[in-house]
Amino acid sequence: MRTYDLSPLYRATVGFDRMADLLDRVMTQDVGTSTYPPYNIEKTDEDAYRISIAVAGFTDDDLGVEQRETELVVTARKAKEETARTYLHRGIATRAFEKRFQLADHVRVTGASHENGLLHIDLVREVPEALKPRQIEINGTAPKAIDAEPVTA
Question: Does the keyword Transmembrane apply (predicted)?
Fold first, then answer.
């Protein structure tokens, strides 16, 4: 596996440490742990997204969806079966999992639904008015000088 030194990024930028930490976490993440359960991430509108996770064999009570600041955590724990079953072949994995998604700033979960073996989580990006681009009016007059009193020591 390749390793990258991100220290120049830390030295040359201010306020991007969260982005560098995210890059570092993604590059060091074990690939084998992120394949179960399978999932899709789709863009449904300009500022709307949907995460769909295959959760065959789980009920609504077995699933949990939680947003913690900029992290979305999806968990599944199968309740103990009351009757013991004997499987001749078991191809539907119902093992417990915890799936984490890093969310960008101002992204929040708007809802979740469970249908046809898929857990759908809808997200929306809501940028505050103060952070949206705005037009600055340009005056045709030159700036005025401010008369200042000389400073005496």
Answer: no
Domains detected in the chain = 1-35 (no CATH), 37-129 (2.60.40.790)
Cβ–Cβ under 8 Å, residues 63 and 55: yes
Q: Encode the chain (153 residues) as per-residue pLDDT tens digits.
A: 566 676 776 666 666 666 667 777 666 665 555 688 999 999 999 999 999 999 998 999 999 999 998 899 999 998 777 678 888 998 888 889 999 998 988 899 999 999 999 999 999 999 888 877 888 888 877 666 666 677 666
Say if CB 104 and CB 70 are below 8 A apart.
yes
